[in-house]
Write a structure and sequence with these properties.
By secondary structure, the chain is α/β, with parallel strands linked by helices. It folds into three domains: 275 residues, Alpha-Beta Barrel (TIM Barrel), CATH 3.20.20; 89 residues, no CATH class; 116 residues, Double Stranded RNA Binding Domain, CATH 3.30.160. The chain is built from 16 helices and 18 strands. The strands form five sheets. It has an eight-stranded parallel β-barrel with strand order 2-3-4-5-6-7-8-9, surrounded by nine helices. The chain has a three-stranded antiparallel sheet with strand order 13-14-15. It is globular, with a radius of gyration of 24 Å.
């Protein structure tokens, strides 16, 4: 039996970026877009071109670079936003404009201060304008989850008649329950006279922890596109997680009437890339991509898996990009073996020069750690690529931290700042605190530390440690990332990485001047 295709619409670069602190530079967005293209994502929502010049450039560059996925730009239902999106997407091999307007009584009355008739008129006008730039137009009635069904039928029928080819039903505030949301999709498809002329889509937020469940309920009731993001990244509690949607569809083909066309072996690579760039760590018990997702500690479970994997695993780790042979390399491994392992892990190296630099990083790690796991390599390369993507005004030269029982911890830091070596010492509540204070003595950024997070990549006391740091200054929020077997060094790297982002002339500007769908 031939299954219908479920279109995967990734909004990591747009809705995911609305997470406080998750804003990305155009170069970072392009790296993620290329990873999504390798994963064979159907539609990549690259950003909101009207929100800032940086986002316009990001969408334009992604539209020029991506050839195998549809590139989409978001636009409010007004002439400026749609024109801006059309300009950003003009060089795309395949493009889509996604326009939206609020339809719930609360939003129309309080936010838009428009009558229902005016909202319908504006939606129709905007869809028609978008059709002048592309034949692929998506329309979203924002806050559809709290909108009146009769009005939704009316505005959707008008939008399709105006030329919309995809109708997205956003549960903007994560308010719906699965049965309720699924029934809304079913009723709309049945009641809108021209519903057969468009694909219906889900866009669910996770405020009640139901984004994936609601999305799948929509699919079971006729939706054939799901809007989702890597690691569930998104505004407030986030969006439906792409990896969970995709693997649920793949795993439950006995019940679901459709299938996806993604290369699921790219999932782990994409997850780690997004986590590294945004600084949003993946919780260990996160479904599909968490460190414990395929781990078994219970003796009963371990015994069962050894006898027959299917006893306690409903998916293969290899299907999402994890290797069954987790111990891969050591300090005696050569450059060819390293490169081969990168290929097996779907990690792309752009040039021989970059490969040589990455190999030196690997050798440095191998001198500290006798056993190198896949997760170590992924973390190392993620850290390396983040360093390479920045114009580093500040570089760590050396660090000496001392922590002794009964004594105040101290740290001495030497940095290279614009090609000039500078040093400072400080004490603190611990070696990390002392190191951060010493760095601030040199840089004097006056930034506020909003987040400090530490996670181990693999097990063992020699594990590579990953640190995420979030800094805020004058309303601008940036993330930093660092990895090292020494957690104090990793912390200093992360703080300096964040400072380089804060000091960089390439600013991250959040597209949050509007209420997202």
């Amino acid at each position: 039996m031939n299954k219908e295709k479920l279109i995967i619409f990734d909004t990591t670069l747009r809705d995911g970026e609305q997470s406080p602190g998750a804003a990305m530079t155009p170069d970072e967005k392009l790296r993620i877009a290329k990873a999504l293209e390798r994963m064979k994502v159907d539609v990549i929502e690259a950003g909101f071109p009207a929100s800032s010049e940086g986002d316009f450039i990001a969408v334009r560059d992604i539209a020029r670079a991506v050839k195998d996925s549809v590139v989409c730009g978001l636009a409010r239902a007004n002439d400026f936003d749609i024109t801006r999106a059309g300009e950003a997407l003009k060089d795309a091999s395949a493009s889509r404009i996604h326009t939206f307007i609020a339809t719930s009584p609360l939003h129309m009355r309080e936010k838009l201060q428009m009558t229902p008739d005016q909202v319908v008129e504006q939606a129709v006008k905007s869809v028609k304008l978008a059709r002048q730039y592309t034949n692929d137009v998506e329309f979203s009635p924002e806050d559809a989850g709290r909108s009146e069904l009769d009005f939704l039928c009316r505005i959707i029928e008008a939008a399709i008649k105006a030329g919309a080819t995809t109708i997205n039903i956003p549960d903007t505030v994560g308010y719906n329950l699965p049965q309720q949301y699924g029934n809304t999709i079913k009723q709309l498809i049945e009641r809108v006279p021209n519903s057969d002329q468009a694909i219906f889509s889900t866009h669910c937020h996770d405020d009640l922890g139901l984004a994936v469940a609601n999305s799948l309920a929509g699919v079971m009731n006729g939706a054939r596109q799901v809007e989702c993001s890597i690691n569930g990244l998104g505004e407030r509690a986030g969006n439906a997680a792409l990896e969970e949607i995709v693997m649920a569809v793949r795993t439950r083909q006995d019940l679901l009437p459709c299938d996806v066309g993604l290369d699921t072996t790219q999932i782990m690579t994409c997850s780690r890339l997004v986590s590294g760039i945004t600084g949003f760590a993946v919780q260990p018990n996160k479904a599909i991509v968490g460190a414990n997702a395929f781990a078994h500690e219970s003796g009963i479970h371990q015994d069962g898996v050894l006898k027959a994997r299917e006893t306690y695993e409903i998916m293969r780790a290899e299907d999402v990009g994890l290797s069954s042979n987790r111990l891969v390399l050591g300090k005696l491994s050569g450059r060819s073996a390293f490169r081969n392992r990168l290929d097996e892990l779907n990690i792309t190296i752009d040039s021989e020069q970059e490969l040589n630099k990455a190999f030196r990083k690997f050798k440095d790690l191998a001198d500290k750690k006798s056993e190198i796991f896949d997760e170590d390599i992924q973390a190392l390369l993620s850290d390396f690529k983040i360093e390479e993507s920045l114009d580093e005004m500040v570089k760590l030269v050396s660090i000496k931290a001392c922590s002794e029982t009964g004594e105040v911890p101290q740290s001495h830091i030497t940095l290279m700042v614009d090609d000039e070596e500078k040093s400072a010492s400080s004490d603190g509540g611990g070696p990390v605190d002392a190191s951060f204070k010493a760095i601030e003595k040199i840089i004097a950024s006056q930034a506020n530390l909003q987040l400090y997070s530490v996670s181990n990549v693999t097990q063992g006391t020699d594990s590579l440690g990953e640190v995420a740091v979030r800094l805020e200054r004058a309303g601008r929020i940036v993330n930093g990332h660092g990895a090292d077997t020494d957690i104090v060094v990793a912390s200093a790297k992360a703080y300096i990485n964040a400072l380089n982002r804060l000091l960089s002339p390439t600013k991250r500007v959040h597209p949050q001047a509007f209420d997202g769908i």
